[in-house]
Amino acid sequence: MASPGVAAPYGPRLRSRARAALEEWSGYAPTAEQKRDLDGELDRRMAQAGGR
Predict the structure, then answer these.
(1) Does some domain include residue 3?
(2) What is the DSSP code string of 5-49?
(3) pLDDT along the chain (52 residues), means of 10
(4) Domain span at residue 41?
(5) What pLDDT does 9 receive?
(6) In-domain check, residue 19
(7) Which of 19, 40, 43, 50 fits a 20 to 30 Å CA distance from 30?
(8) Dihedral of CA 13/15/19/22: which sign?
(9) CA separation for the pair 40, 19 (Å, rounded)
(10) Residue 44, Cβ neighbours under 10 Å: how many?
Protein backbone atom coordinates (compact mmCIF):
# COMPACT_ATOMS: atom_id res chain seq x y z
CA MET A 1 0.00 0.00 0.00
CA ALA A 2 1.44 3.36 -1.00
CA SER A 3 1.91 6.12 1.52
CA PRO A 4 -0.69 8.89 1.37
CA GLY A 5 0.09 11.36 -1.37
CA VAL A 6 2.80 9.16 -2.91
CA ALA A 7 2.27 7.61 -6.31
CA ALA A 8 3.34 3.99 -6.72
CA PRO A 9 4.36 3.72 -10.38
CA TYR A 10 6.66 0.76 -9.77
CA GLY A 11 3.96 -1.70 -8.81
CA PRO A 12 3.83 -5.02 -7.07
CA ARG A 13 6.13 -6.86 -9.50
CA LEU A 14 9.21 -4.90 -8.45
CA ARG A 15 8.28 -5.11 -4.78
CA SER A 16 7.88 -8.87 -5.13
CA ARG A 17 11.30 -9.18 -6.78
CA ALA A 18 12.87 -7.03 -4.05
CA ARG A 19 11.33 -9.19 -1.31
CA ALA A 20 12.45 -12.40 -3.06
CA ALA A 21 16.01 -11.08 -3.33
CA LEU A 22 16.01 -10.08 0.35
CA GLU A 23 14.71 -13.48 1.43
CA GLU A 24 17.24 -15.33 -0.74
CA TRP A 25 20.09 -13.17 0.50
CA SER A 26 19.27 -13.11 4.20
CA GLY A 27 16.56 -15.66 4.90
CA TYR A 28 14.30 -12.84 6.12
CA ALA A 29 10.62 -13.59 5.49
CA PRO A 30 8.44 -10.70 6.75
CA THR A 31 4.86 -11.14 7.98
CA ALA A 32 1.94 -9.74 5.96
CA GLU A 33 1.89 -6.62 8.15
CA GLN A 34 5.63 -6.11 7.76
CA LYS A 35 5.27 -6.54 3.98
CA ARG A 36 2.67 -3.76 3.86
CA ASP A 37 4.96 -1.48 5.85
CA LEU A 38 7.95 -2.36 3.67
CA ASP A 39 5.92 -1.82 0.48
CA GLY A 40 4.90 1.63 1.66
CA GLU A 41 8.47 2.55 2.54
CA LEU A 42 9.80 1.22 -0.78
CA ASP A 43 7.14 3.18 -2.70
CA ARG A 44 8.06 6.34 -0.78
CA ARG A 45 11.78 5.96 -1.43
CA MET A 46 11.33 5.12 -5.10
CA ALA A 47 9.06 8.12 -5.61
CA GLN A 48 11.60 10.32 -3.83
CA ALA A 49 14.44 8.99 -5.99
CA GLY A 50 12.38 9.39 -9.14
CA GLY A 51 11.74 13.04 -8.33
CA ARG A 52 15.42 13.98 -8.25
Answers:
(1) no
(2) T---TTHHHHHHHHHHHHHHHH-----HHHHHHHHHHHHHHHHHH
(3) 54 83 87 91 90 72
(4) 11-50
(5) 59
(6) yes
(7) 50
(8) positive
(9) 13
(10) 15
